[in-house]
Amino acid sequence: MNQQEFLSRLREGISSLPPERIQEIEEDIFRHFDEGHGAGEDDDTLSEMLGDPSALALEYVSLYVSDGVSNAPAVPLQMQTDPPHFPPAPELESQDNFSPAPAERSAFARTGIALALGLLNIAVVLPLALALFITWIALAITSFALVFGGVIGFLASIIDLIVPTGFSSFFFNINGVHFPAVAFFGSIAMASFGGLLGMGLWPAGKSGLSLMERYTRWTIAAINGRHA
Amino acid sequence: MNVQFKKGALDLCVMALLAQKDCYGFELASTVTKYIDMSEGTVYPLLKRLKDDKLVDTYLMESSEGPPRKYYRLTVAGRQRYAEMVEQWNSFIQGVKMIIEGRENA
Hints:
By secondary structure, chain A is mainly alpha-helical. Chain A contains seven helices and no strands.
């Protein structure tokens, strides 16, 4: 493998790093070849001694990820504010109830916090969210059933008022006795109640989702640390 | 030999070489691999990390052959860290040796 091949394969593997970093790495390896040529070595030998370019690229990338951007003071400022591997910790909205995450985390702290929060999430937050979700689904089904049943019952009682077939008694009867008027108003009440329930559930579901989204973002921010 | 062994020791080796004298990349890489069986490339990410941590800095110096060379040198913090690492390494090695030789049961 000649120098060009080695460098281009290396470049492929580190393409996710910031451009300044890529340039520094390429320059280092370029120099290595230069210095090697000065010592009388040829491209093939130098490439072989350097090892697999993809493996080298992986070492650079994992170094950048594990070292983190936050605790690498020598990295230019621009990279600190624009890390490529984790999205910049989201700005928390002002109405957010969660306490803001601290500004910086080391890789070690991130792992610890990720573990702790992960346990908390699995043991507490997940079951709670699941229970709320199931409740919401049950209420939504109830609401739908009330509206559906109410509309059917209403139509049936209308038919009954015109042609007294007793059809609506299938839906509304008290101890086997049929009251068409009860069926008429009852079905309206039923459908209305179902509709109101549904109207209440909709925004509740939406705010539930947004709460979950905010909590997730807060978790990520708490793990990565926020770049103030 | 176990890759993890080498990785752990490599920091120390590179810093030891730099504690003796400033070196350029190829020089460091070829010296380390002369004694330890590993890819020369591995030295460079390590140097980058040491530089990020401000344990090492670099400067350019004219060379008789070809373009100016980039030399690596230990910073004051780097020397301090190196001294700590040597101490830790020695006590670690001593501990491992004691266990391997079964002397803790003697």
